[in-house]
Each structure stands twice: as structure tokens, then as C-alpha cells.
Amino acid sequence: MKDQRTDIAGSLGPLIRGAEELRFEPGFVDRVMGRIRAEGGPPVVVLSAALTRQFWRLATVAAGLLLALGAYNLLGPGSASGQSVVETALGLQPITLEAAYAFDGSLDASGFGESE
């Protein structure tokens, strides 16, 4: 079986290397697109234009949601806790003396505490 594959690969190698590369002649795409436009066929949508249009639609919606969530985070229920705007934007919990004393300081190299 292996000899058979080697024979086939050996006989096809020169044919593949000697084959000329097939290409359309220059201007083929322009002629075809001109013919489609002249016949009044359906409009040809270029993929990049369609993707760009969809990106801008989604990007504007995402930016609006980002602003709305940021405003909610800054002005929402937790904003009256006396934290700064940065602490509120990052969602940091206020540090109290009780929380500092509750910390036992047993962190391993990963920063998550010792595993038991």
C-alpha cells in the first residue's frame, strides 16, 4: 500500500510541477461586473461594505449600552456610599476597619489564599 502511494506521488509530481497556473485574463472581473450592471441584475453587495455597515450599527448600540451602564454604575444605588467616582466606576467595596482586621493575611503566590 505504501509503495503504491509512493508510485502515485512520484508520477504526479512532475505533472504538477510542469502544469501552468491557470488565471483569468486581465480585466475579466471588470467585464463581468459591467455586464451584470448593464443587464440590470441584482445589486452586488461587497462583503467588506456589508461588514462595515453592520459593525457601525453594532458599535453604536454597544457604545450606548456602555454609557448607560457606566451612568448606572456611577449614579445607581451604590453611589451614595461616600466613595469616589473612580472607586464607584471600578465597583470597589469601601474599606472599613472591620474589614481590615478580618483580613488574616494568608495569601499564597497566586493571591487567592491557601488552599485547604
Description:
There is one protein chain. With 116 residues, the chain is an all-alpha fold. It has a domain at 29-102. It contains five helices and no strands. The two termini are 58 Å apart. It is elongated, with a radius of gyration of 33 Å.
SSE diagram, text form:
Layout: H1 2-18, H2 28-39, H3 47-75, H4 85-90, H5 97-102
In short:
The protein has 116 residues and is an all-alpha fold. The chain has five helices and no strands.
Task: List the keywords.
mainly alpha, 116 residues, elongated, 60% helix
Tell me the Rg in angstroms: 33 Å
Number of helices: 5
Task: Say what oligomer this is.
Answer: single chain
* Percentage beta strand: under 5%
Helix content: 55-70%
Distance between the termini: 58 Å
Structural class: mainly alpha
Average pLDDT score:
77
User: Low-confidence segments, ≥5 residues, pLDDT <50?
Assistant: none
